[in-house]
Amino acid sequence: MNPEAQRAAIAKAFPKLFRTESMYGFCRIVKVRENLGNMIPCDPLNDLNATHEVEKMLTKQQYVKYIDTLLTVTTNLRSWGDTGHEDIFEMIHATAAQRLEAILKTLDLWVQSNES
Amino acid sequence: MSPEAQRIALAEARGWMLCQARPSMINDKPWISGMNPSPDVIETIIPCDGSSPRKPNESDYGYETLPDYPIDLNAIHEVEQMLSREQRELYIIWLSSITQNRPFKSYHKNHSDTPWMVWFVATATAAQRLEALVKTLNLWV
Fold first, then answer.
1. Within its chain, how far is the Cα of A26 from the centroid?
2. Which end of chain A has less neighbouring CB within 10 Å, N or C?
3. Is B17 in a helix, a strand, or coil?
4. Is B47:B67 a contact under the CB 8 Å cutoff?
5. Does residue B33 sit in helix, strand or coil?
């Protein structure tokens, strides 16, 4: 799934958090700021603060799946049996792109393509 | 230790100098600034008085806003990157303790509560990570 498709998917899934905005012919994603009525440019693929806000929106059930998915995305492990502290650190230290991938996979919005 | 004190302690550990809180000109919050050990490079100084552009010198580099560790996960991520193998292990234990509000304890590789522990630490906030980093680096006062 290419970066643009990931940004579009997350904006569509969380309209209260993000919107896509067309400006000067370019499409960009903006973060919706509550109570302020304005929006700021944002890139959930590179901004951990943005992905953290999405994490907070997950339901308990989604969160369980998300943690398991994040383990696989960051370490390639599929179960908790063999996790050592280096694996745990990789999860804690996951990048915004890894977190976004895990979120989209959790929500079944990840589309496997030849590029990814 | 206040979030501001933690912010300054971590910045100083990263090489920032002369860190201090100054009155802000735009709001009531203090402006926490210092000398950045690796500031963005200034290529050319273009004086406002219309005189010729010149090369920068040391005095052109001034105080900058400290990374906002208590609220910025991206700034925290950069510091996490610098931890040694031993510090990473300690960091996990501190973060686990802080996020679960439990006393600091040893974490064993095959501890049965690993998924439960990760539940809390994987999405820890910037403030929780800052506290864990300051404690890991033995900067907590």
1. 22
2. C
3. strand
4. no
5. strand
